[in-house]
Amino acid sequence: MRVNEKKQPDALFALENPICDAENAISILMNILHSRFDQDHAEVTGDTNHWYLSDNEISDFMYIGHQAKRHIHQIKEGFNMAIEQRRADQ
Q1: Range of 78's domain?
Q2: Residue-wise burial string across 16-29, b where 16 or more C-beta atoms lie within 10 A, e elsewhere
Q3: Residue 41: inside a domain, yes or no?
Q4: What pLDDT score was predicted for residue 3?
């Protein structure tokens, strides 16, 4: 590296936030799943094999699922960038 050349931030370390965000999104999703599907919904559905989700619960599932997907996409892009950065530094 030349003296006046600015060093790029390490792409590998930039993965920390998206990894933590994805982990948190999955944790929230798992909590939602457990809170809804560990209950007996037969009183509402008339069948112990069927579950009921309100529009808000469906919206929450979709939102957090998309958030997790977005974070995972960021991680994949960052990982590829880190590989390219390491190759360029060799």
Answers
A1: 13-89
A2: eebeebbeebbeeb
A3: yes
A4: 45
